[in-house]
Amino acid sequence: MLDLPEYANLPKLAIAPDHIVFNQGELATVDLNSEQTHYLKRVLRLNTGNRLVVMDGCGHWWLGILATEDIWQIQLLSEININHELPVQVNLIVSLPKNGFEDIIRSATELGVYRLIPIISSRTVLKPSEQKWQRWQKIAQEASEQSERQVIPEVLLPQSYSDFFDNSSQIVDFTNSAKFMAVTRMDAQPLPNLLAKVTHDQSIYLATGPEGGWTSEEINRAIALNFQPISLGKRILRAVTAPLAGLSIIASHLES
Q: Can you give the pLDDT at residue 25?
């Protein structure tokens, strides 16, 4: 029987990298803000001397211990050498559904997505506020803690289809990438067939549409940027199902 890793049952805390103070010749410490202090003390009910895992969201984990309560710092004891990330960056371009985008963020984070790009297309109904975007970032952080990710996915600000595809080079790096657009009711190859041609030095972009699907103009515009139309199966998937089905296929292929 295999023993669980030392960190398996410890609480997880995501922090910003600039909260870590590296002192020469001494243990590094993490300065906690009031929200983090409340979470550790009131929600998790941790006390001085309790251990936890600290994540910087950029690929690093540390084993830490709570210092004195009047200071509320975390001392970092040692770095944890693990890798739960997909071997390539998988970016999800999602035409915002009317409901359920928060569930997409949670599940996509669990499936290993690197970046979520919410798009307002011709048939998008939802017009999110700045407060919504801030909440989305928080959901990605919490889902990363729960699913033991090393990287917290980036959720970009929502933008119109035209703004993204007209200025994509200023927003993302399509260099050496495989780009797919999920479509329905048209002749398109199954996603697994095309993934077989993707090399591990490429990033992946998957675009999924809103309720009612992409318009023909939107599909043609994406094709002009070398997106390949793909099928996620013979059935018509809901706007909240399609991105997760696509990510599941990609993650299964990359980790097989």
A: 59
